[in-house]
Amino acid sequence: MKLIESLKKKKFILFNIFFALYISINLIGGERGLISFFDKKNIYEKLIEEEKVLTAKLKDLDHKISLINKNDPDYLDMLYRQKFNYVTEDEIIIKLK
């Protein structure tokens, strides 16, 4: 009986304690918490770096396609020599990777 009466008197304090615990637990954990924020931030930064790499590769590929479409004889000759390892005796081939 005394327990129920004391809880009735202190219900505002107990409510505030549980409410503060609930907010602090959800602030740190959960889908929108602090830990999740840092994980998503790291994933975002990795995706930005990957986008930069893919953009550079795409530019290079577009440049190569434009050279082929223009029928640039020097570029086509270079591709032919690289593919079939065709070299005359007085030529030196430098391979770039």
What does this structure look like?
- This protein is 76% helix and 0% strand.
- The chain is mostly helical and 97 residues long.
- The chain has a domain of 30 residues.
- The longest helix has 36 residues.
- The mean pLDDT is 83.
Number of strands: 0
Rounded to the nearest angstrom, the radius of gyration is 33 Å
Which strand-content bin applies to the residues? under 5%
Q: Number of helical runs?
A: 4
The overall pLDDT average reads 83
Largest β-sheet summary: none
* Percentage of residues in helical conformation: over 70%
Based on secondary structure, the structural category is: mainly alpha
Shape: rod-shaped
List the secondary-structure elements in sequence, H or E. HHHH
End-to-end separation in angstroms reads 84 Å
Low-confidence stretches: none
Concise description?
This protein is mostly helical and 97 residues long. Helix content is 76%, strand content 0%.
Keywords:
76% helix; 4 helices; 97 residues; single chain
Give a topology summary:
Blueprint lengths: L1 H8 L1 H18 L5 H36 L3 H12 L13
